[in-house]
């Protein structure tokens, strides 16, 4: 796949997983400083990695939650909790991911991540009402 096709694939997958509103905000906020980073994320994270056939999006979402929680990246975690729900991960499964993360990455990071996840899940529930 050439770079142009990879960028198109990445944009499509990114929109499907994160939603048009998020991607539109990210694109609108792009500056000369951040443009190369946005291109990297779109082409490689979304166009290559998230588009690979070896794992489905649901599984990729759960892995992403565990990794972001373990690394303490709460802002990205909040975004990916929403994406995980979009990809079919249940609220209970998100809780299980955090329990599993606690064993391998530590209780404090999992506790913080669980608080982030709960806040996002509460927001999603409110939006559905």
Give a structural overview.
This protein has helices spanning 3-18, 20-28, 35-49, 57-71, 74-86, 91-105, 107-128. The chain is mainly α and 129 residues long. Helix 6 (91-105) packs antiparallel against helix 7 (107-128).
Summarize the structure.
The chain has 129 residues and is mainly α. It has seven helices and no strands.
Mean pLDDT: 96
Task: Write down the secondary-structure element order.
Answer: HHHHHHH
Q: Major sheet: size, sense and barrel closure? A: none
Oligomer: single chain
* Uncertain stretches: none
The helix tally amounts to 7
The CA-CA distance between the termini, in Å, is: 43 Å
User: What proportion of the residues form beta strands (DSSP E)?
Assistant: under 5%
CATH class of the largest domain: Mainly Alpha
CATH superfamily of the largest domain: AhpD-like
What is the alpha-carbon Rg in Å? 15 Å
How much helix is in the residues? over 70%
Envelope shape = globular
Tally of individual domains: 2
């Amino acid at each position: 796949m050439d770079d142009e096709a990879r960028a198109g694939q990445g944009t499509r997958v990114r929109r499907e997983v994160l939603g048009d509103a998020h991607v539109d905000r990210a694109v609108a906020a792009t500056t000369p400083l951040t443009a190369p980073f946005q291109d990297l994320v779109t082409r490689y994270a979304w166009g290559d990695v998230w588009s690979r056939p070896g794992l489905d999006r649901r599984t990729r979402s759960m892995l992403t939650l565990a990794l972001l929680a373990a690394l303490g990246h709460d802002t990205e975690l909040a975004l990916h909790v929403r994406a995980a729900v979009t990809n079919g991960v249940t609220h209970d499964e998100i809780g299980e991911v955090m329990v599993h993360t606690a064993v391998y990455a530590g209780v404090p990071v999992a506790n913080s991540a669980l608080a982030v996840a709960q806040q996002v899940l509460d927001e999603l529930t409110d939006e559905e009402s």
